[in-house]
Design goal:
With about 200 residues, the chain is mostly beta strands. It is built from 1 helix and 15 strands.
Length: about 200
C-alpha cells in the first residue's frame, strides 16, 4: 500500500495471506472495519434499562425486540444510534409500545411483509407517540391499508419529527400512505391524530 506521493510501499500483503472477516462486516482499502448492517441472524437481548425506557444500543438488540415481540415490560423504547437492518425482512414493533424515541437516528434497509413498522394486535394503533425518527430504504407490503410507519391509526396518536426517504408502502386492496395508511376507528373527542 502506498501513502501520499511515496514511491515506496508503507506495507505489503503476501498474495497467499488469508485475512478472516466476520460475516456482515466490510473493510475500507486501508483495512479499517465497519459494520454493514444486521446479519439477519444475530439477536442480543437488550440490557440497558433507563428507568421507564428500554434502550436499544445496536441492530442486534433492535432485532431481538422485533423478533421476540418483547419490550421487557417497558412501554417506551429509545434507540441510541442508526440501525441498518441489512436488507432483511423483520417483524413490527410489539403492540404495547406506546412511545418510541428515535433520538434523531434512523432505521434503514428493511422490509416488512403484511405489516407496518408499528402494528398492534387489534389492527388499529392507539395511544402512541412516535418521534424524532428517520426511516430510509424500507419496503412495506400489505393486502389492506398500509403505511411505512403505521397501517391504521385509531385514537390519540402523535407523530413528531418523522422523515421517510427512499421507501415504499404497497397494497393490493386499501389506502396507502407514507407515515400512516389510514386514519379511523375512533369516535368522539378522544380521536386526535397529530403530525408535527
Amino acid at each position: 500500500f502506498y501513502e501520499g506521493d511515496n514511491t515506496e510501499p508503507v506495507s505489503t500483503i503476501a498474495p497467499t495471506m488469508a485475512i478472516p472477516l466476520k460475516r456482515g462486516w466490510l473493510t475500507t482499502l486501508r483495512g479499517d472495519m465497519f459494520e454493514s448492517g444486521w446479519d439477519g441472524e444475530t439477536l442480543i437481548e437488550p440490557t440497558t434499562d433507563d428507568g421507564e425506557w428500554l434502550v436499544l444500543n445496536n441492530t442486534e438488540e433492535l432485532a431481538w425486540v422485533l423478533q421476540n415481540g418483547n419490550t421487557k415490560g417497558k412501554y417506551k423504547v429509545r434507540i441510541t444510534c442508526d440501525m441498518d437492518m441489512g436488507g432483511n425482512t423483520v417483524k413490527p414493533f410489539p403492540a404495547w409500545v406506546n412511545e418510541f424515541d428515535g433520538a434523531s437516528h434512523k432505521i434503514s434497509n428493511f422490509a416488512i411483509d403484511g405489516d407496518a413498522l408499528f402494528t398492534p394486535d387489534d389492527d388499529y394503533i392507539n395511544e402512541i407517540n412516535i418521534h424524532d425518527l428517520n426511516i430510509e430504504d424500507a419496503t412495506i407490503e400489505n393486502s389492506g391499508h398500509v403505511g411505512v410507519l403505521v397501517n391504521r391509526v385509531g385514537i390519540n396518536a402523535t407523530f413528531e419529527n418523522i422523515t421517510i426517504k427512499n421507501s415504499s408502502a404497497t397494497t393490493s386492496d386499501g389506502a396507502a400512505g407514507g407515515v400512516v395508511g389510514y386514519i379511523g376507528g375512533g369516535t368522539g373527542p378522544a380521536l386526535e391524530v397529530k403530525f408535527i
